[in-house]
Amino acid sequence: MPLEQALRESRRDSALAIGLGGLITLAIISTSAAAFFGSDAGFSAATISQQLEPLLGPAAKYFFAVGLLAAGLTSAITSPLAAAYAVSGALGWPADLKSPRFKAVWAIVLLLGTVAAALGTRPISAIIFAQAANGFLLPVVALFLLLVMNHSGVLGDYRNQLWSNIAGISVVLVVSGLGLFKLTNAIASLL
Q: pTM of whole model > 0.70?
């Protein structure tokens, strides 16, 4: 496949995946805001499924349970797979589903998650830690990507153009601001 065609298809795939993911996130956030605004209800699976009853009736709890199961299964498969791709790429290993090293990374991530769940660790603490780590790392990764995308020695004629740089700098500034905001909130809550 020619490089130009691969880049076009990659851009199209990325735009579709990010766009659909953003729409789904927006739908979840707006639905949750509408359901829980002004409500004193706690946030548990039971109260969330009760909020769906006007739309789905008595079957709401079953729809919600199937949705949680599907979300859990897809996360349990895709997160370790993404980790295997990332580790293999970073270490220069073949990112092939048949590669023993790729399979080993995938299995280790799955095993660690299974052991953590079996030992009864609190997933909320892990999620909060992961989000805090994202707040620190995302601006660094975004800045690094922006620098690489402008390096003519790496990308040649395919390096960023002006509008891509403006969008990239905007993303770095917004993500850095959000990270700083969350960090100051976390420090303030500890004091």
A: no
